[in-house]
Write a structure and sequence with these properties.
The structure holds two protein chains of two kinds.
Chain A lengths: L18 H18 L13 E6 L5 H12 L3 E6 L11 H9 L5 E6 L4 H8 L3 E7 L5 H15 L6 E5 L6 H12 L3 E5 L15 E3 L2 H5 L4 E4 L15 H8 L3 H4 L7 E3 L12 H5 L6 H31 L1
Parallel strand pairs in A: 1-2, 1-3, 3-4, 5-6, 5-8, 6-7, 8-9
Chain B lengths: L1 E11 L4 E10 L2 E6 L4 H8 L6 E5 L4 E4 L1 E6 L12 H10 L2 E6 L10 H14 L3 E4 L15 H6 L5 E2 L8 H14 L2 E4 L4 H4 L4 E2 L2 H6 L3 E2 L2 H17 L2 E4 L8 H9 L4 E6 H5 L21 H13 L4 E3 L7 H4 L16 H10 L5 H15 L15 E11 L18 E11 L2 E5 L3
Parallel strand pairs in B: 1-4, 1-5, 6-7, 7-8, 9-10, 10-13, 11-12, 13-14, 14-15
Antiparallel strand pairs in B: 1-2, 2-3, 5-16, 16-17, 17-18
The chains are: A alpha/beta, B alpha/beta.
């Protein structure tokens, strides 16, 4: 087998990736999907390496997914809940990074509430850094797992009509997906109330709809986003129930999409706010559970590729 | 002491000329201006002997009035580790700035005659250039009660400003403007709609959307300016907008001037020479307040400086230590040091053939001096001999660690610049000379 062509030292976002690098991650992830479905799920790809998950923001799913991915590949995994720790004592991000660096991690998985914080951290440590979500900027592994899910459901990852619906403005998932799906040459529609959809995204080639019915016509993929509770009370939208009426995905609205359109959601869902519970559970339409499964596989693939590059770079440095 | 600057390229913002000539300085003032004549001829005409005159051969380089920089932050009292009067004074001298007009956004704010006297003493002891202090318009810059404007003027305050804090309460602001008018005080404000710009780190647009940064519409500046103009109509106060940085604010400014209001406007060198894209991968040295704008806005503002609609260019010198900048972009402090880079950055506009040198010095020296009622900022007879001698073409690469400022937060680090200060004179005395 040809070694996959993926040259990045870090996975900070989708923006720096080239299409063939995206494909390299997805192809390798397919192997890990197969591995994960076996009873014996162990590989030694990261054996001997230390992976630190550093979450400056609450997370259950993403952190668990990264932890599981690392453990299945044989890494020594440590979780640090940064919200409860030194940050509260006034330590700066850089100092935290330098402290960690002294522990010689090989893979650093970081989530931070501010855009660009993970880039900043990556400049200060000498290991591979994976962005697990920075502010409203990017969440690359989510976009990659979405891409893998779409590719498996639709048989391809190009020339699809894809609708991303809901709170685009505050969503790093939406940004990473918009960039990734754009790079792979899909048509992207952004659907949501104008208070939650930055109109500037039209300049990146996305089509913007504030009428969901119009926006969902003939799409292949419906990607719903989570609406944060704190945005619901009159600030960006008038109320939860009005939002559900106009922008919640129900059977009526979904009927406008292609008959075989799939429904996605990055989780956790607010049933009855952005998505009807029955649709979320409809295994003929919803791929939401599959997304979670792909998440572990994609993270295994990304860490495996980064670890290969890290080993190569360190070997080159040593010689 | 009498000095004769020979063989100079005289930049005269008042006459709008850029021509060879010589300048005679006596007793700290400009005593004569001559077309390209020999030293002997000038001395003979003035009744001076060659021996009693110090000769400075300018070698055909530019001699211009020293820069008058409104809105310089020196971090005394409170944060002397970021910038002291000594370091700011050295930076100003090295940058051709002969008068710094300091901001009161220190900690505590300069809002009482006692604090003002303290900084005046510090400035006199330590700074080699002229220092004129501004004072806060409201106590603690909190926008609730006006400061002792009369006492502060007696103590030497040349203008009143809450800096980047907008006085949100229009009643408070209108009373402060009314009272200031009765004292003949100049009020400097930061036109910005504070609700709209709350929490913003970038200008809304394609770039901020892609980077996921909290952003403010450029319209917030026009809204702030519109409000202030309405209050000027009400109160008749003397007003200066510290930074106009967007195209959309310009028509409002033009109308206010045409209507005869006592209004002037400034802009910062960063908004004239950089745009939002310079932030690139969250480079916090490019975080300023207001945030950098689009290229269209930048060009509109440059054009407004050319036509004179925008009167004044300032450095908006804001020292920040490494700790306040080495943070995620949203959390990082805003501001950049600029005393030393003001002139070379401004010369980018000259080399780009957007502005000529007399226009630049009109905005950097003549207009700010006029607005503050100073006699400097010009090359006319009897004006203070505050001068800068510079080579407009000399290329160099900026190394931030070579700056005189204690803080090194310049967006121009490692950039190619063109134009170097050769010497700076305050009242005829050299306060800076570039070693050969």
């Amino acid at each position: 087998m040809q070694p996959p062509s993926f040259d990045q030292p870090h996975l900070l976002g989708i923006e720096p990736l080239r299409p063939h690098e995206i494909t390299a991650i997805l192809d390798l992830a397919e192997d890990y999907v197969a591995l994960n479905r076996q009873t014996e799920k162990h590989s030694e790809a990261l054996a001997g390496l230390t992976q630190i998950n550093m979450f400056f923001e609450n997370s259950t799913r993403t952190q668990a997914s990264f932890e599981l991915a690392g453990k299945r590949l044989g890494a020594d995994v440590m979780n640090m809940a940064m919200q409860a720790s030194s940050v509260k004592k006034g330590e700066t991000l850089i100092d935290t990074a330098l402290t960690l660096n002294a522990m010689h991690p090989d893979l650093l998985v970081v989530r931070h509430p501010h855009s660009g914080a993970v880039d900043l951290l990556a400049q200060k440590v000498n290991c591979a850094v994976l962005n697990a979500g920075d502010g409203k900027h990017e969440h690359p592994t989510q976009a990659l797992l979405d891409a893998l899910t779409i590719r498996r459901a639709k048989g391809r990852l190009h020339r699809l009509n894809i609708a991303i619906c809901g709170d685009i403005a505050h969503s790093r998932v939406a940004r990473s997906n918009l960039i990734l799906l754009g790079k792979m040459e899909n048509r992207i529609r952004l659907i949501g109330p104008p208070t939650l959809v930055p109109q500037q995204f039209a300049e990146f080639g996305a089509e913007i709809y504030d009428d969901m019915r119009e926006g969902l016509k003939d799409v292949d993929v419906v990607m719903m986003l989570r609406l944060q509770k704190e945005r619901m009370d009159g600030g960006f939208i008038p109320s939860e129930r009005e939002y559900y009426h106009r922008y919640g995905l129900d059977a009526d609205k979904l009927a406008l999409a292609k008959p075989d359109a799939i429904v996605m959601h990055p989780g956790p869902m607010n049933r009855g706010v952005e998505i009807d519970g029955q649709i979320a559970d409809d295994i003929t339409r919803s791929v939401i559970q599959e997304q979670v499964e792909m998440g572990v596989a994609v993270r295994m693939a990304a860490m495996d590729l980064l670890a290969r590059n890290l080993r190569k770079a360190r070997a080159a440095q040593a010689s | 002491m009498t000095t004769l600057f020979l063989n100079a390229r005289l930049i005269d913002p008042e006459a709008g000329t850029d021509a060879p000539g010589a300048l005679l300085v006596a007793e700290g003032r400009i005593a004569g201006r001559f077309d390209d004549q020999s030293a002997e001829a000038i001395c003979a005409a003035q009744g001076l002997t060659l021996a009693e005159v110090e000769m400075v051969d300018c070698g055909g380089k530019c001699l211009a009035p020293g820069i008058v920089d409104i809105g310089v932050k020196v971090c005394e009292p409170g944060e002397r580790h970021k910038e002291s009067y000594k370091s700011a004074g050295l930076a100003a001298a090295a940058g051709g700035v002969t008068t710094i007009v300091t901001r009161p956004d220190t900690s505590p704010a300069i809002d009482s005659p006692e604090t003002l006297e303290f900084v005046t003493r510090r400035a006199q002891a330590d700074a080699p250039v002229n220092v004129l202090p501004m004072a806060a318009l409201t106590k603690g810059r909190e926008g609730r009660e006006m400061t002792e404007i009369g006492f502060l003027m007696d103590a030497g305050a040349v203008a009143f400003t809450d800096c980047d804090h907008v006085v949100g309460n229009t009643k408070v602001f209108s009373r402060a403007l009314t009272y200031a008018r009765s004292c003949g005080a100049l009020v400097i404000a930061h036109p910005q709609e504070p609700g709209l710009s709350d929490g913003a780190a970038a200008t809304s647009g394609k770039f901020a959307a892609l980077r996921g940064l909290p952003a403010v519409s450029p319209m917030a500046e026009r809204m702030g300016l519109d409000r202030d103009i309405a209050l000027l109509e009400m109160t008749g106060a003397k007003y200066h907008a510290d930074q106009i940085t967007t195209a959309r604010a310009l028509p409002a400014l033009e109308r206010a001037k045409a209507n005869g209001l006592d209004i002037t406007a400034g802009t910062s060198i960063h908004h004239l020479t950089l745009n939002e894209l310079d932030v690139a991968d969250y480079r916090t040295f490019f975080k300023v307040k207001p945030p950098l704008r689009s290229e269209d806005d930048r060009l509109a503002v440059v054009e407004a400086v050319r036509t004179g609609l925008i009167d004044i260019i300032s450095s908006m010198h804001t020292p920040q230590d490494e700790e306040s900048k080495r943070l995620p972009f949203e959390e990082a402090a805003a501001g950049a040091v600029a005393l030393e880079t003001l002139l070379p950055a401004a010369l980018r506009l000259y080399h780009a053939e957007l502005l000529d040198l007399p226009t630049l010095f009109r905005a950097m020296a003549l207009n700010p001096a006029k607005r503050l009622g100073l006699a400097s900022g010009r090359l006319s007879l009897d004006a203070p001999a505050d001068l800068v001698l510079f080579d407009a073409d000399a290329p160099f690469v900026l190394d931030r660690f070579k700056l005189q400022s204690k803080s090194k937060n310049t967006p121009f680090d490692t950039q190619r610049m063109q134009g170097r200060v050769l010497a700076t004179y305050v009242a005829g005395r050299p306060v800076y000379r570039k070693d050969a």
